[in-house]
Design goal:
Largest sheet: 3 strands, antiparallel
Structural class: mainly alpha
Number of helices: 9
Shape: globular
Mean pLDDT: 88
CATH class of the largest domain: Mainly Alpha
Radius of gyration: 20 Å
Strand content: under 5%
Helix content: 55-70%
CATH topology of the largest domain: Four Helix Bundle (Hemerythrin (Met), subunit A)
Number of strands: 3
């Protein structure tokens, strides 16, 4: 009887191990331990993540399905490359879902927590203006994500939320490929505050425009020109 019980538990144990390996893989991508364009053999990935090969293969399979890695038969894996077209597509994807999240929050009067969100952004903006930005990259990233999380949660759709989370991982890989620019913090917080204020005013048109502007400005700071007409015809967004 014990042998039968043990056999029944093995698939569950394997699934748990695969889930943990996937979490470890995503953490490595998010933190920059695995960087854009990096090539690794499966043996190297096993050593890095410290999980069995079977669990690593399952994690790679999941990551590949989201475009985070490319599995190269008999060679290993390669992390997504932060090419201009990839950057544009990832930011455009986020913009579209952010805009829809804003519209749904406004339509559903689901705006609780905006005050705290605004206060957090104001504090970071003021600190950046006071030239303290070089001490706070982690806080800047967390504050930046707090608004995008708020908008994503407004979608109210688990499938969209999963797609949003995968795209956020792609954006994390992109962010890790680029040098941190402290001067960007203040302007990014101003752009976020414009979005927050439009949400507070329940002005869907202003909110979606502020999100579009933030996307265009992010591309500009990253040195990636948007596709003509894709985001706006306004000179400052080009």
């Amino acid at each position: 009887m014990k042998d039968a019980d043990f056999s029944a538990e093995r698939p569950q144990d394997a699934q748990l191990m695969a889930t943990r390996a996937q979490d470890a893989l995503w953490a490595a991508l998010r933190s920059g331990r695995l960087r854009d364009g990096q090539f690794l053999s499966m043996a190297q990935l096993v050593d890095l993540l410290e999980f069995p090969i079977a669990a690593i293969r399952e994690a790679v399979k999941q990551a590949s399905s989201h475009g985070l890695l490319a599995a190269l038969p008999k060679r290993g894996v390669q992390v997504m490359e932060a090419r201009p077209e990839t950057i544009r597509e990832c930011l455009d994807f986020r913009m579209a879902l952010d805009q829809e999240g804003a519209r749904r929050r406004i339509a559903g009067h689901a705006l609780d927590g905006l005050g705290a969100l605004r206060a957090r952004h104001v504090a970071l903006r003021d600190a950046a203006r006071a030239h303290a930005a070089h001490d706070m990259p982690p806080e800047a990233v967390e504050t930046d994500l707090s608004l995008h999380d708020f908008l994503a949660a407004g979608l109210g759709n688990s499938r969209l939320a999963d797609s949003y989370a995968a795209n956020r991982m792609r954006i994390a890989i992109i962010q890790n490929s680029r040098p941190f620019v402290p001067d960007r913090i203040a302007s990014a917080m101003e752009e976020h505050l414009a979005i927050i204020d439009a949400l507070a005013a329940r002005d869907a048109a202003a909110a979606t425009e502020a999100i579009r502007h933030h996307c265009a400005q992010t591309l500009r700071w990253w040195g990636v020109p948007p596709v003509a007409g894709a985001l706006s015809s306004r000179p400052e967004a080009v």
